[in-house]
Amino acid sequence: MDGIGTREAGLRKVSSHSSISEADDFDLSRLLDKPRLNIERQRSFEERSVSEFSISNTRGVDGSDSIYSPGAAVRSGFDTPASSTRHSFELHPMVADAWEALRRSLVYFRDQPVGTIAAYDHAAEEVLNYDQVFVRDFVPSALAFLMNGEPDIVKNFLLKTLHLQGWEKRIDRFKLGEGAMPASFKVLHDPVRKMDTLIADFGESAIGRVAPVDSGFWWIILLRAYTKSTGDLSLAETPECQKGMRLILTLCLSAGFDTFPTLLCADGCSMIDRRMGIYGYPIEIQALFFMALRSALVLLKHDEEGKEFVERIVKRLHALSYHMRSYFWLDFRQLNDIYRYKTEEYSHTAVNKFNVIPDSIPDWVFELMPTRGGYFVGNVSPARMDFRWFALGNCVAILSSLATPEQSMAIMDLIEARWEELVGEMPLKISYPAIEGHEWRIVTGCDPKNTRWSYHNGGSWPVLLWLLTAACIKTGRPQIARRAIELIESRLQKDGWPEYYDGKLGRYIGKQARKFQTWSIAGYLVAKMMLEDPSHLGMISLEEDKLMKPLIKRSASWTCMGPERT
Ligand code: GLC
């Protein structure tokens, strides 16, 4: 029950810095082509971080004169990534171009870089809100900057969005929860008055008026990445950041009518921000929720106010991992079990707890499911299992260790076995398969942007490359990431860094895809940097808590495959 709490909390007491830098380290050497070199670099970096931590402590939390000079690295060397000058790894010609494009997308507030614009596409007829800084879109940009030794922009972003969280948020006459983080924000420059002002969107301007549930989770995850990468715990420990975390957690840990530990959501509240039948308990949100809870656990202070949250997080994590690993997991055995389910079972002895009617299993699942491999399905709620594959949720499940090591391996097995379906010619399918015909009409509300195999409906999103690469490194399968990167390198730059691709194989630039989509650019850079130096993975990955035992009994096909794996 209190495995996570005591372990991480215990470490925290001994040394707050070591908890974040070491608690979730693990043996990466098995994955590396050049293991010694990279590991050593990371070690010395972490040692340096320790001394920076003590220095920044004496300087005060706002860190106005931090070790890295703000703006300097960002504004200088437009075409020279620090990583290429510091490390002499083999540079693909695309890398320099990507850095240039990424820096072009920087957004400044009172001369400080505070984020990156979603897309720098002057040719697009309609800007819509692609000229804004999206919280979720900024994550790969932030990781690229952190990996390149430029943490200041990330700090500025974290503080700016924290400030926005404090705004009063309203839709019509309804006031939103205090902890809500914006989906996006924009800086308005007034050249006459020489004034910069901010506008933010918490869902009140968004198409469909949906609040971005993922924003707060990404914010916490990014705060941990920043802390882990810089060793600077002083930012996370400011009363403002602690309060920001508590407010986000208040929104999702409050008791209500729920019978499940999963978080109930409206459709379109994550990366897939339009109606796509992902309301209820979508894997995309549950995996991020889990990762944010684990991140908050290492960042929250165990003071009067923090303690209560720590206890609630620990309880929720246990319930959530049990629920997800048991009921969202699907592999050959589990599919066969569901196929043979009895229905209308009442009472505690029910095997088919959610009363899933076997007839509702779509035909394609039987074809997709390899003998070896598995994944977390899209959604589970009463009499409704959404069997679709969602890439982000599954990758985040691996990175957060929501998936057990065996489940993580099985997910990678599935990707390998079903490469054509899930990766095709352009990594990576956001979801699989597409919904069409009558189902498309009902589920999307006839959305012309989400026609079959386009955009969110089975489209291919290059940004997902960084998540795949991180998952590959974590599971010791870097060759899968290399294969995906090769595909990206054959087209992405030539095509002008599109937002997404269409078609069953992802061969066509998306119907309404923006060009120079920042997260397509940053995602590529992050994937490259992680493969070059897998020690970067620690920023965005959490090791399994050994005490959080997998409790799934049925359908443990992965245990059979263990010995076969080399
Ligand atoms: C689209 C995507 C969303 C993204 C936004 C900005 O709406 O669905 O996930 O944040 O564009 O790029």
From TrEMBL:
GO biological process: sucrose catabolic process
Catalytic activity line of the entry: Hydrolysis of terminal non-reducing beta-D-fructofuranoside residues in beta-D-fructofuranosides
SUPFAM superfamilies tied to this protein: Six-hairpin glycosidases
Extent of the signal sequence: none
Entries under Gene3D superfamilies matching the protein: 1.50.10.10
Keyword Hydrolase among record annotations: yes
Region named Disordered: 1-22
Alphabetized UniProt keyword annotations: Carbohydrate metabolism, Glycosidase, Hydrolase
EC number(s) recorded for this UniProt protein: 3.2.1.26
PANTHER family cross-referenced by the UniProt entry: ALKALINE_NEUTRAL INVERTASE D-RELATED (PTHR31916:SF15), PTHR31916
Function field: Invertase that cleaves sucrose into glucose and fructose.
Name of the protein: Alkaline/neutral invertase
Organism encoding this protein: Colocasia esculenta
